Amino acid sequence: MVPDFALRIQSMIRSLQDVVLPAIPEDSKLALDQARIIVGNLRIMADQHDKTFRYEFVELREYARLVEDLTATADGGDATRMAIERAKTSLAAVAPALETPIPNQAELLAFVKSLKSSADALVRAAHEDGALSFRQAAVSLVMHQSRGQIARERSWFRAAGFELEPEKLPSLDEMLR
Amino acid sequence: MVVPDVKQNPSDEWIESLRERFPTERTVDETLTRKMKHRSGPRHRPQTVASVTERLTRFLARRLPGEFLVSDIRSLAGGSSKEQFSFRLNWRDEKGDERSEALVLRMRPSESIVETHTLREYQAMKAVREVMPVPAVHWCDPEGEELGQPALIAGFCKGITRPPSQGAYTPRQGFGAKYRALLGPQFVRYFAELAKFDWRHSDVSAFDPPRVGSNDGVIKAINWWERVWEEDSVEAHPLMTLAAQWLRDHAPPIDYVSFVHRDFRGGNFLFDPENGRIMAILDWELVHLGDRHEDLAFLFSPLFSEKDEEGVELVGGFFPRDVFIGEYERLSGLPVDPERLAYYDVFSCWRGAINALATAPRIMMGEKTHQDIRVGWIINSAPLMLSAMHNALKKRL
Predict the structure, then answer these.
(1) Do B364 and A123 touch (CB under 8 A)?
(2) Which domain holds residue A94?
(3) Mind listing the pLDDT tens digit for each residue in B291-304?
(4) Are residues A10 and A93 in the same domain?
(5) Mind listing the pLDDT tens digit for each residue in B179-192?
(6) Which residue in B236, B306, B397 is closest to A139 by CB distance?
(7) Which of A20, B96, B133, B282 has the most CB atoms within 10 Å of its CB?
(8) CB-CB: which of B242, B357, B387 is closest to A2?
(9) Nearest CB neighbour to A161, from listed B170, B237, B357
(10) How far is B378 from chain A (nearest CA, A)?
(11) Residues A107-152: pLDDT tens digits?
(12) What's the pLDDT score for residue B1?
C-alpha cells in the first residue's frame, strides 16, 4: 500500500517541527505545549503502528497461559467452578488463533512487493516476446485484478475528499471481507 | 522491477542507462538527470527569509541600474511543488523615476511532485501573455546559481483561487452557480486561446517542438514520464506497466502543435471575487509543446468534476462535457477528435498516477520538499485516477 503509515507520520512530524511550531508565537503557551505533545504522540505512533497486531498477539498468548495455569490450580466452591467453566470456554474460543502462524507486517509487505514485482515482470515479458495467447491473457488478468485493487483503494482513501460521491463507495469492512 | 537502494542512491551508470532507455527533450533530460544526481544528498531545508533576502539583493544588484530596496518578504502558501515568497521591490528606473512593485519569487525545492525546468516555465509565460492574463515574468535563474535554487521572479497578482471554504485540500473549487456563470466563459476562452496560440514567433529555445504529422513528440513525452516512473516508483504496479505499453503502441501523430499547460483547471487561476474577472492563469511549470487533447483530457478527469444544483456533472466544475467541447471548438477553431481525446484520457491519468503513486512517496522518503505533508495528501488521489485510467483502457483493449 502506498504510502504506508510510517511515511505519513514522518511527514506530519516534519510539518509540525519545520513549519507549524516555529510559526506559533512564544506567548501562545497552550498552543506550543499541545503542538509539542502532538509531535511526541506521532513519534510513539511511528514506533508502534506496525506492531500493534503483534503486541496484541503476545498479550493473547501471555493471558492464555495465565488462564491455563490458573485453571489448572483452581479449586473451591460454586463461584470458582463457574469461573473455571467460563475460562475453559474462552480458552477453547482462542485456541485456533493461537495455533495460526501469522507473518509480521514487515514480512507481509515484503511478500506483497515481491509478488507485485513478479507480476510486473511477467507483463513486461509478455509484451516483449510473449506468445499471442500469453499477451492476451496478461492484459485480461491484470485488468481483472486491478479492478478489485482500485475499488479497495478508493474505499480506503475515500475520507480524503477526492471522490465526487464517496457515500456510494462500499465500506472498508465490505472491501476487506 | 523495484530496487529501492538503486533509486535512493543512484549510480552514474544507472542514471546513464535511464537516459539511454528514455530519450526525451533536452531540458527535461537535464532536469531529471540533475534530480537523480542530487537524490542521495541531504533533506531539503527551506531557505530562511534572511537568506532569501540576501541572495535576492545580490541577484537584483546585478540587474538593476541604481539603488533599490527589497522589503516585506513573506513565504506564500498554495501550490504543491514550488517554494514561494512575496516581496516588494522599490527602485529607480533608467530615467531616475521611483518605481515600486509587488513580486513573487518561485523556487524549486530539492525535489518536487513535478520536476521541471524553470526556463520552460519562464519562456511559456512570457509568450502567452499576448493572449491571456499571466503574471509578468521579470527574471529567471534556471540553474539556481545565484538564488540557491532554480527560480523565477514574476509579478504578484491579486485574487483568490476559490470561494473561501473550510476543510482539507481537494482539487474541486466549489465555485457555485454565481462564480460558475462569471468564470466559465472566460475559462473556456483562455483554454481555447492557449490551444490555438501561434508560438512560432516566441522564444521557445527550452523546448524541442514536435513535428506535425508525426508521433515523435508523443513518444518523447511517454519517455519523460516512464523515466520518472522508473526513477521514483516505490513498488511495481502491473496496471501502470500495461498502460505504458498501450500508450507507446498507440501514440497518435500530432495535427497541430500547441502549448499544453498540463494543469489548466480551477485552482490554478486567480480571480477577483468582486466581479469574477480572471486575473491570472498560474502554474506553468509542466508546460510543453504537444497535442491540445492532452489539456482537454486532463480537465475532464473525474478529479475535477463537480455536480451542479440539478445534479448534472460539469467538467472542470464549469460545463457539461459536450457544452465545453462545443465552445472550445468554436473559440479555438480547432476540432476535438474523440479518438485522440480517448488516448489522452489514458495518458493524463497515467501521468497523474505517476506523480501521485511514485514521485510523491519517493520525495517524502527523502524529505526533499517543503511540502511533504501536502504531497502526501495528493497520494490519496491515485485510486480515483487509476479508476479513470482503468475505465478508459478497458474500452480500448
Answers:
(1) no
(2) 5-99
(3) 999 999 999 999 99
(4) yes
(5) 999 999 999 999 99
(6) B397
(7) B282
(8) B357
(9) B170
(10) 9
(11) 888 899 999 999 999 999 999 999 999 999 999 999 999 999 999 9
(12) 42
Contact B242 A164 (CB under 8 A): no
Query: Which chain B residues touch A2 with a CB distance below 8 Å?
Result: 234-235, 357, 361, 379, 382
B1 chain-A contacts, CB cut-off 8 A: 117, 120-121
**Residue type at B382 in one-letter notation:** A
The pLDDT tens digits of the residues spanning B331-343 come to: 999 999 999 999 9
CA distance B295 to B263: 7
| B3 has pLDDT over 60 | no
Q: How many domains does chain A have?
A: 2
The mean pLDDT value for B37-59 works out to: 90
Do A84 and A127 have their domain in common?
no
Grid cell of A44 as nine digits: 510513539
Written as nine digits, the cell of A173 is 469492512
- pLDDT at residue B80 in the model: 77
- Domain ranges for chain B: 12-43+159-396, 49-155
Cα–Cα distance for residue pair B54/B309, rounded to 1 Å: 52
Which residue of chain A is at minimal alpha-carbon distance from B75? Answer: A19
Q: Which residues of A touch B306 (CB under 8 A)?
A: 164
Taking the Cβ of residue A35 and every Cβ of chain B, the question of whether any pair is shorter than 8 Å is answered with: no
Single-letter residue type at B307:
K
By the CB < 8 Å criterion, does A168 face chain B?
no
Q: Looking at residue A132, what is its pLDDT?
A: 97
**pLDDT value of residue A1:** 62
The nearest CA of chain B is from the CA of A134 a distance in Å of 14
Task: Please name every residue paired with B87 in a beta bridge, in sequence order, or none if there are none.
Answer: B103
* A10 lies in the same domain as A94: yes
User: CA–CA separation, B24 vs A18, rounded Å?
Assistant: 36
Same domain, A10 and A72: yes
Closest C-alpha among B130, B132, B81, B128 to residue B109: B81
Contact across the interface for B376 and A156, Cβ inside 8 Å: no
Q: Are B206 and B119 in contact (CB under 8 A)?
A: yes
The whole-number average pLDDT for the span A155-166 is: 90
| Number of Cβ within a 10 Å radius of residue B68 | 15
Query: Is A17 in the same domain as A64?
Result: yes
The kind and range of the H/E element at B242 are helix B238-249
Q: Are residues A167 and A142 in the same domain?
A: yes
pLDDT, residue A177, reads 82
**What per-residue confidence (pLDDT) applies to B167?**
56
Residues whose CB falls within 8 Å of the CB of residue B17, separated by 6 or more in sequence, listed in order: none
The architecture that CATH gives domain B12-43+159-396 is Alpha-Beta Complex (3.90)
CATH fold group of domain B49-155: Phosphorylase Kinase; domain 1 (3.30.200)
Nearest-Cα distance to chain B for A16, in Å, is: 10
Residue where one domain finishes, among candidates A99, A127, A145: A99
Could you say which residues from 83 to 142 on chain A have a Cβ atom under 8 Å away from some Cβ of chain B? 113, 116-117, 119-124, 127, 138-139, 142
